[in-house]
Amino acid sequence: MKIEHIAMYVNDLESAKEFFIKYFDAAPNNEYHNLKTNFRSYFLSFNDGARLELMNKPNMLDCEKGVDRTGYIHIAFSLGSADKVDKLTAKLLSDGYEVISGPRTSGDGYYESSVICFEGNQIELTI
């Protein structure tokens, strides 16, 4: 079994799509738009076969995204090396995103960093 895709609602669909293209080399499909409900989405594909669906619709509830909340907390991207983790962490920091931990080796043995990215969403970068 494998996870087919992960989906997330976003406020700014185009900016979220561009974020994943710029930093993670995502390949988007053509935008889906349901004219009846005004639901819009993109599927983003990554080079290892993983997929992320970005979605938007009118009147979404936009709750605070504290890092200690219950539920889904982050998406982790395996970059392949500590050097790539260091470089992308530095790039995200220089582009104005908040690095909340790392890069470091965590207590459970992962070399990682955690960054608060677009719309307050947390992304983990690891080997």
Question: Main traits of this protein?
Answer:
127 residues; 2,3-Dihydroxybiphenyl 1,2-Dioxygenase, domain 1; alpha+beta; 2 domains; 20% helix; single chain; 9 strands; 36% strand; five-stranded mixed beta sheet; four-stranded mixed beta sheet
Biggest sheet: strands, sense, closure? 5 strands, mixed
The overall pLDDT, averaged over residues, is: 94
Total of DSSP H or I helical runs spanning 4+ residues: 2
Domain count: the total is 2
What are the segments in which pLDDT stays under 50 over at least 5 consecutive residues?
A: none
**Rg to the nearest angstrom?**
15 Å
CATH architecture of the largest domain: Roll
Distance between the termini: 23 Å
Estimated helix fraction: 10-25%
What is the assigned CATH homologous superfamily of the largest domain?
2,3-Dihydroxybiphenyl 1,2-Dioxygenase, domain 1
Count of beta strands: 9
Assigned CATH class of the largest domain: Alpha Beta
Structural class: alpha+beta
CATH topology of the largest domain: 2,3-Dihydroxybiphenyl 1,2-Dioxygenase, domain 1
Shape call = globular
Please characterize this protein's 3D structure.
The protein is of the alpha+beta class. The chain folds into 2 domains: 6-56, 2,3-Dihydroxybiphenyl 1,2-Dioxygenase, domain 1 (Roll), CATH 3.10.180; 74-126, 2,3-Dihydroxybiphenyl 1,2-Dioxygenase, domain 1 (Roll). It is 20% helix and 36% strand. Strands 1, 2, 3, 4 and 5 form a 5-stranded mixed β-sheet that branches. Strand 8 and strand 9 form a beta hairpin.
